[in-house]
Design a protein that fits this description.
Blueprint (H helix, E strand, L loop, with lengths): L1 E4 L5 E6 L8 E6 L4 E5 L2 E5 L3 E3 L1 E5 L6 E5 L5 E3 L4 E4 L3 E9 L6 E9 L3 E5 L2 E5 L4 E2 L1 E5 L6 E5 L5 E3 L4 E4 L3 E9 L2 E13 L10
Parallel strand pairs: 5-12, 14-21
Antiparallel strand pairs: 1-4, 2-3, 4-7, 6-10, 8-11, 9-10, 11-12, 13-16, 15-19, 17-20, 18-19, 20-21
């Protein structure tokens, strides 16, 4: 948590001479210091995600603040401090205490495009020996490589390019993982029926 304090001095000394030269009094006026506590300092947001900026204003009954974005095309912010990532890039959210515009802070938003993968068809019914080309598409990454895996190679085998070959009756899941981020995956359910039709292929 960061705290930003007003640049105006909190102590103002007022001195007046009252009465005789040996009878001096000094008056001291204490002004409350206004401090701004903002969370978080920075954040990584996937495009489409939101974040609530929390603000605490110390030294004032007025707890409100004004929020503005340096680039609303990348990250927008509402009057209540709700940030939405709209596009990949960096934006700075300025936070100004309404109780004292001299007290301000900022939150750095780094927005990124999440990696997603699609796999088509999502399901297929094939006969033994009938091949099928699966089509995978990776979005949000320059690396378009895809890793394919079969849940049961005794039923369905899959090649490095996504061609599946049914070898026995049953069902298997083909998983396609983005090489750029192997936690991102899609699946296709392959159901194998029989017997195969000699000299023909199902499309």
């Amino acid at each position: 948590m960061k705290r930003k304090v007003s640049g105006i001095l909190g102590l103002v000394l007022l001195a007046t001479a009252l009465g005789s030269c040996d009878d001096d009094e000094s008056g001291v006026l204490l002004r409350d210091l206004i401090a701004l506590a903002v969370q978080p300092d920075s954040a990584q947001l996937a495009v489409g995600d939101t974040l609530r900026i929390t603000v605490q204003v110390d030294g004032s009954a007025n707890q409100s603040a004004t929020f503005t974005s340096s680039d609303s095309a990348i990250a927008s912010v509402t009057s209540s401090g709700l940030v939405t990532a709209l596009a990949a890039g960096r934006a700075i959210i300025a936070v100004v205490a309404d109780a004292d515009p001299a007290v301000r802070d900022s939150v750095i938003i780094n927005a990124f495009q999440p990696i997603v993968i699609s796999l088509l068809p999502a399901a297929a019914t094939l006969q033994v020996g009938e091949p099928l080309q699966l089509v995978a598409q990776v979005m949000g990454a320059t690396n378009q490589d895809v890793l394919f895996r079969s849940s049961n190679e005794n039923i369905v085998q899959v090649g490095t390019t996504g061609v599946v070959t049914p070898v026995a009756l049953g069902e298997a899941f083909i998983t396609a993982k983005a090489a750029a981020d192997t936690t991102v995956l899609a699946t296709s359910i392959i159901t194998v029926i029989g017997p195969p039709v000699s000299g023909s292929r199902r499309r």
